[in-house]
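Service request form, structural biology core

Requester: graduate student, group of Dr. S.
Request type: structure prediction, single chain
Budget code: on file
Notes: please return the result as structure tokens.

Sequence provided:
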Amino acid sequence: STENWARAEEEVRGIMKLIRRLFKVDIKQLVKDDFKLVVLGGRDRLPEDVVKMIDEAEEASKNGSRATLAMCFNYGGQQEIVRAAQRIAEEGIDPTTVTAEVFEQYLDHPDIPPCDIVVRTSGEQRLSNFMLWRSAYSEFLFLDKLWPEMQAGDVTAIVEEYNRRNRRFGG
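Core staff response, request fulfilled:
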């Protein structure tokens, strides 16, 4: 997240190391498996080599049709909303014509739908500035496990829990 830059320098280096491994190893498999990759978030603070890896992965996967994987790097929900408002202002759109449907077309990658479920790891029970617009009607699941410890069985359990829920979208 954008807030992760405030962490200790060693921890930030560790996060960047994980991201580099992700793009060098794991993303290549997703491309082979016909997934499309979309990365949300600002690229302004990311190292140049990471930006290049993101650009290359998005380009290599742009025709993926099996599913779309949306990943957030240097992402902040408030910052995404601000960028959308800035885009609207830059286009000179009459503010009285801006609806929720119009606004969401100015979010980063507006083709990415709202979140069905937000899984928060590490035992924390807060959004921490994550997907504020897209999580308006999301289901939430809080886990004590740290993200790097997640395994395939955890994902299966998350999907099973989601399938047990009755979504009402505010109704």
